[in-house]
Design a protein that fits this description.
The protein contains 37 helices and 24 strands. With 920 residues, the protein is an alpha/beta fold. A seven-stranded mixed beta sheet has the order 6-15-14-13-11-7-8, sandwiched between helices. α3 runs antiparallel to α4, α21 packs across α22 and α27 crosses α32. Pyridoxal-5'-phosphate (PLP) binds next to α18.
Length: 920
């Protein structure tokens, strides 16, 4: 058997599960057509049907009856009948039509004993749209009884049910894990005690992973198998509702702390309707959107408004002869659902006590946080809120200089001192990666040796970075907590909110890692591990030793304080600017008042109702279908990567940089190369996600276009203006493609066809243009790909702004520098091309930047207020060929602070810090 065929037959071939399934059904359909035309043999069709078989057991549709009907038609050589049915099922699986149309569950000429026995009675009821899901039942019953059990569940359905479900039955722990992974429609699980451990089928990869990473799951101790399965399923898909049906003493089971993850424990023999109702109620608890539901009700009420916001209720719009088209374009509900009131059940975003509070609590549950706060001004505001709430003037914050500008501005506003750390450079693409852990630890150890560790409040990092570098969040936090046990972490996950719904990515989110650390700290072995390492390290380990050691924090001493911001609008179905702050902070109660002050400082007092509602709805969607949607986004990305890198013509001009190109080898200790490297399996990816210092988010694709003669900005423009394709950001020689939950395979097809057209036109131009054209093309490619300027590191703050800094550590008072520039007397301008600029670089006095200078691309500040400008920075600026440079006016030149005027001025932070009592 070929290895591909073997892969298809083993039940744990998880990579590309849904699209792999679509492909297999499409293959069967096309083979059926060939068989009908006389071009293929029956054997081939039979084999294709067999290959489908095992995996189909994890899905309710098409189910045993339709598969049996296909088999029968095959046996009877009914080529036309087989083709018709295979075609319909294949289409149904791709479109999902069967979820709403009862007819799709029947083979047209199949004589069913009693349709009511087989079909959901309310499926296809056109009066209401009832969302469809699948219930996984893990049962000790023999497989021959499963159709009967599924029929029993169908009989429980009632007209009043808000949702429709079908049941998928499996008989073992291994099959249950596979079904939960492979079938995104599964939303609830009923575990009947007494099921087997091993699958009836082959599952080599899964067994290997379970044996090495979850050995406890496989212990043969029968008694706990259900609890272990429940824990395993929750680890993969925390959103699943789990019901446990036992014939033991259920009261005792319910008292087991490990049973807290189970939604309800029931006595197996009791009324099955109870389970049915519980399952419906469980889905309803996720479906409910307190704020949005209420807003819809509000919109239906006849309300006269005597306050601001004339467009509320729409009368100013629909009655106007001049702006009526606005009303027609947006529809009446937008206006009926707008209000500046916080009464009438609309709650207040600034002081939520009603349905916004409930919506936020549900978001916290969904995202694995203790608290969630909705923000309607983007993550730019979320970051500033967190910084203001947690750091005070003079505190030190270690942060990636390459982070989003909201962090830099947050520090300007709060007066905390940035200790900039550098990400590893990727000069060939004019971009940065992420900050190595060694650099972060060194920063902490340097501050410690300067006696300034008590001043360090926070580590602030971007996860994942714009270009897709994902931190090992758990390891970073553990090692930092080993040096400073109360360090606060701010993970800017503007791009990464969706990651919660991928079992691969979740452990690498701030919240996911915090949960893992919390769980670890409560284990018996945690203190032992710490003590063992402490003994090994001895009393006064050197900084070098600490840098080389994977440090274990003291589980008794750590204060786990983790904040995560996400631009819900960037990766989920929230309206633009919808963002969230997620919190897991054991000391939150001590800063809650400050946190609310920060909200009052930054939030608008007129938050948009639709935005708040969309955050509520985005949460609902992710809790009910996020797993499948994220899997789809990853599959789309893998498709794009595969198609571009393997296409004979496209790959001569374009390429998507693999994980090995984005993450240097030294940070991939697992040896992982790329998602598409030959022989790579999902367990390799899992190991990489667990071990490696950095991983690549597969949905963020760096498409190199310099090799096709385009710089990033012009290529982005070309795609948008000529081909209606919009991409994310650009670098000198690349553009960033991002797949997300709304992408389809048609989008992939469009992108590929456009790239092909562009490649064909380059090919033609080079052929017809002769040697001159080819030379010019080669020169352009070389300029874009090879003549790339070195990226300038952060130099240092000028001494004027370091009066309260350590001797050897680089932190500085950015706020004083920022506001110094408000006085024109204290500023001067200098063109970067002037001889005076060169003279100052050589002979001084220092040139000190008065503001942030941020070129787009690459989009990071090459100068910050108070920073001394060096040769490196000026050379980079001179080589930059981008038009957009924020903070730099070409006509005037660089805005500099006159240090002669500033000399002798004490920094505001210095004063503030001097007056504040120091922590012991
Ligand atoms: C890393 C990062 N953080 C924060 C933001 C700001 O997010 P928002 O656009 O939601 O204000 C961005 C925006 O691109 C970003 O890239």
């Amino acid at each position: 058997m070929s290895s591909a065929a073997k892969d298809a037959r083993s039940i744990d071939h998880f990579f590309s599960a849904p699209s792999g399934r679509h492909d297999r059904w499409r293959d069967l359909h096309s083979l059926a057509r060939s068989w009908a035309n006389g071009d293929a043999k029956r054997n081939a069709v039979e084999q294709a049907l067999e290959d489908l078989g095992v995996l189909e057991e994890f899905h309710a549709f098409p189910g045993t009856d339709l598969i049996a009907a296909l088999r029968e038609r095959l046996r009877n050589e009914d080529k036309a009948g087989f083709l018709a049915l295979a075609k319909r099922i294949s289409l149904d699986i791709i479109t999902g039509n069967y979820k709403q149309d009862a007819g799709e569950w029947q083979a047209a000429d199949l004589a069913l004993p009693d349709p009511a026995d087989v079909l959901p009675p309310s499926l296809g009821d056109s009066r209401t749209h009832r969302p469809y899901f699948e219930l996984l039942a893990v049962t000790p019953a023999p497989a021959s009884r499963w159709p009967h059990i599924a029929a029993e569940f169908r009989r429980l359905r009632r007209q009043e049910d808000a949702f429709i479900y079908e049941t998928v039955l499996v008989g073992s722990l291994e099959d249950a894990v596979c079904a939960a992974v492979m079938n995104p429609d599964i939303a609830a699980v009923a575990i009947y005690e007494g099921f087997a451990l091993r699958s009836r089928h082959d599952a080599p990869v899964l067994r290997n992973v379970l044996a090495t990473q979850h050995p406890l799951l496989l212990e043969t101790d029968e008694a706990d198998l259900s609890l272990r399965l429940a824990a395993g399923l929750k680890a993969i898909r925390p959103e699943l509702d789990i019901y446990l049906l036992s014939d033991r003493r259920v009261e005792k089971l319910a008292g087991d702390p490990r049973a807290a993850i189970i939604r309800r424990i029931m006595y197996q023999i009791e009324e099955p309707l109870e389970l049915h109702l519980s399952v419906q109620e469980g889905i309803k608890a996720r479906f409910e959107t307190p704020f949005f539901d209420n807003l819809k009700l509000y919109a239906q009420r006849p309300i006269a408004t005597f306050h601001a916001l004339p467009i509320a209720r729409g009368k100013s719009v629909f009655r106007s002869p001049w702006i009526r088209d606005m009303g027609q374009f947006y529809g009446i509900n937008l206006f009926l659902a707008e209000s500046s009131a916080t009464t009438g059940g609309l709650d207040s975003l600034l002081e939520p006590t009603g349905n916004i509070k409930r919506a936020q609590d549900m978001a916290a549950r969904a995202f694995g946080a203790e608290h969630a706060f909705f923000v309607t001004n983007g993550t730019s505001t979320s970051n500033k809120m967190v910084l203001q709430a947690l750091v005070a003037p003079g505190d030190i914050v270690i942060l990636d200089r390459n982070c989003h500008k909201s962090h830099h501005y947050g520090l300007v506003l709060s007066g905390a001192q940035p200790f900039y750390v550098e990400a590893f450079p990727m000069a060939e693409f004019s971009m940065y990666g992420a900050v190595p852990l060694r650099t972060i630890k060194k920063a902490l150890l340097d501050l410690k040796s300067e006696g300034r560790l008590d001043r360090v409040k926070m580590l602030d990092l971007t996860n994942c970075t714009f270009d897709g570098h994902i931190y090992n969040t758990r390891r970073v936090m553990e090692e930092c907590l080993a040096i400073k046990p109360d360090l606060i972490f701010l993970w800017d996950e503007a791009w990464f909110g969706f990651a919660r719904w991928s079992p691969f990515l979740r452990p690498r989110t701030g919240m996911g890692a915090a949960a893992d650390i919390e769980a670890w700290a409560q284990t018996q072995g945690a203190v032992e591990q710490f003590e063992k390492q402490r003994a090994e390290l001895g009393n006064a380990p050197s900084a070098d030793k600490l840098l080389q050691t994977r440090l274990i924090p003291d589980p008794r001493a750590i204060r786990l304080r983790v904040y995560q911001t996400n631009s819900t609008h960037k990766s989920m179905s929230a309206i633009r600017q919808g963002s969230m702050v997620l919190v897991r902070d054991v000391d939150f109660h001590t800063i809650e008042a400050q946190f609310h002050e920060a909200i009052f400082t930054h939030a608008s007092t007129s938050p948009n109702q639709q935005l708040i509602a969309s955050l509520d709805v985005a949460r609902r969607q992710m809790e009910l279908e996020g797993y499948g949607l994220v899997m789809n986004a990853i599959e789309v990305a893998l498709d794009i990567r595969r198609e571009i890198n393997s296409h004979p013509l496209i790959s001569t001009y374009f390429s998507i940089v693999g994980a090995d190109g984005m993450v240097p080898k030294e940070y991939r200790s697992s040896g992982f190369i790329d998602f598409l490297a030959p022989g790579t399996r999902w367990d390799d990816q899992l190991r990489s996600m667990r071990e490696d210092e950095f991983c690549l988010d597969p949905t963020r694709m760096t498409l190199v276009c310099g090799t096709a003669g385009f710089d990033g900005t012009s290529f982005k423009g070309l795609l948008a203006s000529e081909y209606n394709i919009q991409v994310n950001k650009t670098s000198r020689n690349s553009v960033l493609l991002q797949s997300n939950i709304n992408n389809t395979r048609s989008d992939v097809a469009l992108l590929i066809s456009v790239l092909l057209k562009i490649c064909q036109s380059i090919d033609t131009r080079l052929k017809h243009g002769g040697e001159a054209e080819q030379k010019a093309f080669a020169a352009r490619v070389k300029a874009l790909m090879k003549d790339v300027p070195d990226l300038p590191n952060f130099s240092h703050f000028h001494e004027t702004f370091r009066q309260d800094a350590g001797d050897k550590t680089p932190e500085g008072d950015i706020r004083t520098a920022f506001f110094a520039a408000y006085s024109e007397k204290q500023c001067e301008y200098l063109p970067i091309d002037s001889p005076e600029c060169d003279r100052r670089l050589k002979d001084g006095p220092d040139m000190v930047s008065a503001n942030f200078v941020i070129p787009y691309p690459p989009g990071f500040p090459i100068m910050v207020p108070g920073q001394v400008i060096t040769h490196e920075t000026i050379t980079f600026m001179r080589k930059l060929d981008v038009k957009e440079i924020h903070g730099y006016e070409k006509a005037k030149g660089l805005k500099l602070l006159r240090t002669d005027v500033l000399a002798g001025k004490k920094s505001a932070n210095h004063e503030a810090a001097r007056k504040r009592p120091r922590a012991a």
